[in-house]
Amino acid sequence: MRKKRDKLSTCVITIDPLHRGGVYALVKVMYQALEELGLNPSLYFLSLKDRFSLRRRGFSNQLMQGRSIGFIPFTEYLQYIPPALVSSEELKQFEIFIVVGGFNACALIPLLNRKRFVCWIATMVADEWRARLSYAPNDLFRSWSLLSNMILLPINTALERYIFSKASYVHSISSYTKQQIEQKCGKAGNIGILNYPVDTELFHPASECGKSTRERYIFAAGRIGDARKNFPFLLRAFATVLRSCPYLKLVIATGEIPSNSSDIKKLASKLGIADSVKFLGRLSQKQMAEYHRSAQVFALSSKQEGLGIVILEAMASGVPVVSTCCGGPEAILKKSGAGFLVPQDNEILFAEKLLQLLEKSELRYQMGQKAIAYVLQNHSMEDFKSTIVKTYQIVYPEYQF
User: Fold this and answer.
1) What are phi and psi for residue 78, nearest 5 degrees?
2) 3-class SS at 47?
3) How far does CA 1 lie from the centroid of its chain?
4) pLDDT class of 217 with cuts at 50, 70, 90
5) pTM check: above 0.85
6) Domains, the chain, ordered by start
7) Sheet holding 41-46, edge to edge
8) Which runs of consecutive H residues, i.e. helices, occur in 252-305?
9) Could you please report the per-residue DSSP string of 86-125?
10) Neighbours of 259 (CB within 10 A)
């Protein structure tokens, strides 16, 4: 008799979920879905805090110390080999393995232990590090991290291709990432798209999505210490917009404020817009939802995004988007008609598109309605869970899902 779903245990292998960011959001929704499906998830990850521990954690449980291990710091793929070599006994308690990450480095743990596994991946390692390299690092740690990973990029990309070839199934987070995987690793029948599910009970428009419910500010979000978010571009574009809309505000949810955030604030002062820009610290999801639904426009200025979860949250709130052409957002905005795309080097055009939406309330409303419809149709939790079950039925046919 096949083992039933509620008797199975799932190992979710990822980076440190306490390190907030896009991967944290992916891990959280995956964990939630697996819990709702009765697949008993547990998390395994390398701790970025002390860089010398393998930890096990459940979102609803207290953090538990796992096996202490040493590994090579800073190198994205090689650091997973030591924990893979010492975790075979602990992994025996699991039947199902899912790897969730920006790229697929942590899949070395199930791979080297000869486990069947599924990946849910946001980007490619070369895209990630080349985007980081396009900016001058601000401290010695970042310099060493960039240097070591760029030197080892041929090894990392070779390992990335090998992992994809051995994965039982690969879910990309967007059509952009799927295309990147197919171009660099070859087309295969085991690559699909697993759309990120948006919590539309939390991220939703105000009771009336009319122009009267919107405040006069542009909203943006992203870790201010991540140079890929390209906030200088956004500030310069906003300075242009401000000449036509002097009472407008730019509100940026930045997460935790790192020591190098003073560079962004100095730029705002230099541009003469400091009084019109508000930098927020870390917000709860409820606070993020409130800022989304009260904004007139959402702005994404990134250099590289595998998906762009924040634009989906803005769209679910009925807010149109102006985004740079940076990967994942391109297909979303082209399919939905919920905003404008602008080349990464064109601050003037970015400002013009922001102004177009700010000055035309009817256009804002129409795009907002398209945004809501697109998210409801393509990014539901029920569809997400259905895709997971169908994948596991293929990868683990001996179990009853």
Assistant:
1) -65, -25
2) coil
3) 39
4) very high
5) yes
6) 3-197+380-400 (3.40.50.2000), 211-378 (3.40.50.2000)
7) 64-68, 53-57, 41-46, 10-14, 96-101, 118-121, 169-172, 191-193
8) 262-270, 285-294
9) H-HHHHTT-SEEEEEESSSGGGHHHHHTT---EEEE---H
10) 9
DSSP H or E segment with residue 65: strand 64-68
| Residues 264 and 229 sit within 8 Å (Cβ to Cβ) | no
Rounded CA separation 109/87 (Å):
8
Alpha-carbon separation of residue 118 from 98, 161, 163, 164, 324 (angstroms): 5, 15, 11, 10, 31
Nearest to 194 by CA among 285, 126, 98, 127: 98
CA distance 340 to 338: 7
pLDDT tens per residue, range 328-373 = 999 999 999 999 999 998 999 999 999 999 999 999 999 999 999 9
Cα 152 to Cα 129, 147, 160, 388: the distances in Å are 11, 9, 12, 33
pLDDT in tens, 103-153: 899 999 999 999 999 999 999 988 877 766 665 455 445 566 667 777 788
CB atoms near residue 131 (< 10 Å):
20
Q: Which of 209, 222, 213 is nearest to 251 (CA)?
A: 222
- Among 320, 325, 329, which residue's Cα sits nearest to residue 355? 320
Distance CA 370, CA 362 (A): 12
Which residues on neighbouring strands pair with residue 305, listed in sequence order?
A: 327
For CA atoms 79, 80, 84, 90, the dihedral sign is positive
Residue 283 has pLDDT above 80, yes or no: yes
Side chain identity, residue 330: E
Helix (H) or strand (E) holding 307: none
Q: What string of DSSP letters covers 329-367? A: HHHHHHHH--EEEE-TT-HHHHHHHHHHHHH-HHHHHHH
Return d(Cα 253, Cα 291) in angstroms, integer.
Answer: 9
Residue with the larger pLDDT of the pair 90 and 54: 90
For the chain, give the longest Cα–Cα distance.
Answer: 71
296-313 pLDDT tens trace: 999 999 998 999 999 999
The secondary structure element, H or E, covering residue 145 is helix 140-151
Residue type, 89: E
Q: How many residues does the chain have?
A: 401
174 phi and psi angles, rounded to 5 deg: -155, 165
